[in-house]
Amino acid sequence: MRLRLILLCTTLIVTHLVLHVALELGPVAPDLVVVALLLASRSLGSSGGAVLGFVLGLVEDAFATISFGANVFALTVVGALGARTRDFFVGDSIPFLAVFFTLGKWSRDLLAWTASDPAARLPLGDLALVESPLLGLYAAAAGLVFRVLFARRRGNR
Amino acid sequence: MAGQPRHTGERRKTDLLLAVGVILGSLIVLNLPPGPQRAMRHFMRETVLSPFIGINGAIARTRERALDFDLLRTQMDSLVAPVAAQRTLAEENRQLRNLLGLKDRPSHRVTAVTVIRAGTPGSESTFQLDAGLDGGISPFNAVVTESGLLGQVQEVFSRYSMGYDWSHRDFRVSAMTPDGRAHGLVEAVRGGFREQDRLVLRGTAYLSDLGPGDELVTSGRGGTFPRGIRIGWISGPAEASAGWSRSYYVEPAVHPGAVTHALVHVGGGAGVTVAAEDSVFRPRQVDPP
Fold first, then answer.
1. Beta carbon pairs, A and B, within 8 Å
2. What is the ipTM of this complex?
3. Which chain A residue shows the shortest CA-CA distance from B48?
4. Which tens digits make up the pLDDT trace of B118-163?
């Protein structure tokens, strides 16, 4: 895993925690954890992606009293499957990353929904067709901005 | 964009097996009993999330201090008259209780806390308070604001505690109108979106006639919430069950997302009805004048 990628993922995770935990912005802020996980998992492999997803899921679930473990499960599976995409797609083009991040966020939300307590979750239709795709596009846009920023820095050197 | 496998053979198989093992581990975490889950959450909050929670608390305290001074002075002035009036009321109440042979009510004790929320998925309805065992807080203490009831403490640690607000699915509080003509149990009902969550008063007598705007306060029954804390106002009828009981929707007094400062009732609290002690009438010999 290259240093630039480590820096990018660390920045994404720290920014996510600042926006969500320190500033309590909630869904107003993009889900940068899933972006960092997807980027890192393509370099780490399935097991590395799963372990990173497991740890990030524990951090995300630190305040969850009803469905503790739902985010752990979702991010672990997304981390493991995200790494497998390297077997089918190479390169980091903007269109590929946009689709990759959007589908990754959508998968994460659906997996978390599956694992969460039935009494506490949103209707599946609303989540799968409205909320999650929009949040996926939002996360993808934010992720691409970070990706471009880091790529530019590299080009300037 | 054709892909290329990075590893082949045994290494690839090992990688896949490890990934499956971690996924199984995540399923184990999902099904852990409450004790270990609580310990894991506590560990994460005290390590990785500690600086971010600290920033959140600092921002909340700064926001509190930035409140308009004139507004605070108006609030304080509005309290002066009721407090002055209640000094004589308290003395009258003490004399009457003596005459009736009732025990003194326990004294009020509250701890001021800063309310910290996280915006992570799954943390809805949950908040952290910046005081714990060291502040005298214990599980099931009521958390209130100047507007009314916010929620309840659930987990207490040495330096902080965790609680949930009225929008949590496990929240229940026994309620009544201030004049005591209707009693019932208030709980949260989910809306299509989280912003549509509201409270519902269940189990009131079928003949109870509550209208929009009627105030509801805690009744003290059950021994968890002190009596007399405002819960909200009736907003309209919800349902009636075949001549037996009625339910009403309740507009909550407190909007949890806006709360940064609260008070925790510690040490039992005043007016808590545990086993109807106040209703035990022990007549005292009163000398004729």
1. 171
2. 0.91
3. A59
4. 888 888 889 999 999 988 999 999 999 989 999 999 999 999 999 9
